[in-house]
Amino acid sequence: MATQPTLTAAPDLGVWKRPSILRRLGRTCWQYPTGVFAVIVLTGFVFVGVFGPSIAPYDPRGLASGTPLTGPTASHWFGTNSLGQDIFSRILAGARISLEIGGATVLIGATVGSFLGILAGYYMRWVDYIIQRSSEAFAAFPALILYFLIIAAFGRGVKTIIIALVISAVFSSNRVLRGATIIERNKTYVEAARSIGCTERRVFLRHVIPNVLPLTIIIMSGALGAAILAESALAFLGLGVAPGTPSWGIDMSGTNLASARFGHWYLVIFPGMAISLVVLAANLLGDALRDILDPRLRR
Question: What's the number of CA atoms in the CB half-sphere (13 Å) around residue 289?
């Protein structure tokens, strides 16, 4: 007599659970160590920019805080300049100006410019004509002359630099986003969204903007570094903030630069390292966020 086959219970495979937020965050940090480094540096930059003048061991504007042209010591970590000012205190205080200028350029200039570029690339026609002709008119106008006109209207200071850099960021960032948006609006997934009845507004907000967002982040991170470099360059040329104001560009120019030729290397090395570190961190953060947010580059 044939034996009846016995039925065995299926193995309990369990229910898949989504990893916790901390686990996913830790995995992301492990995959993008340069992004973690950038976040740490920029977080420290923001902290120093907000609280730098308060935590500085010496008055950044005060004269004769120590013996002039003294190298790094226990009491003056980065040494003193030709006026006896503590370089470490001036770097801490100078971060505030760089933070104000860089933050305003990114939040106002790069954001508005990116949005205008996306509008021009998606809707085309008269919207694109107005935005692009305005950008071309600005590109034909020398930026330095524009800066001198703003100085004549508002005087020298942080506000003048912010206005000039914001205008420059608005008109320089929209052309790149325009080209990327034109490519996205003609892709198959956009046509498929229209074919199932999606409105133009939904296609624009739900499909096009998320796909050009990684490039927008790259532009914003680049704008932060460019704004800090521009402020430092203007201060180096004597066209930035008023003399005596704690600024990384001022600390690298004038008598400090002349004194550095005679062995006082610390006068320009430490302010230059501060500028380079922040600009590098801004670029690394932009690259990491692009890889994380772009599905085509995500690992």
Answer: 19
From residue 100, how far is each of 163, 178, 181, 224, 256 by CA, in Å?
A: 12, 28, 30, 10, 24
Residues 124-138 pLDDT 10s: 888 888 888 888 888
Which residue ranges of the chain lie beneath pLDDT 70? 1-17, 254-262, 294-299
Burial 35-63 (b: 16+ CB within 10 A, else e): bbebbebbeebeebbeebbeebebebeee
In this structure, the chain runs to a length of 299
Residue 147: exposure state from Cβ atoms within 10 A (0-12, 13-18, ≥19): buried
Per-residue confidence (pLDDT) for residue 65, from 0 to 100: 74
Could you tell me which of 133, 139, 90 has the C-alpha nearest to residue 246? 90
Beta bridge pairs of residue 86 = 80
Q: 43-51+85-293 adopts what CATH topology?
A: MetI-like fold (1.10.3720)
What are the extents of the domains in the chain? 43-51+85-293
User: What pLDDT does residue 228 have?
Assistant: 85
**Rounded CA separation 95/157 (Å):** 15
pLDDT of residue 84: 79
pLDDT recorded at residue 13: 54
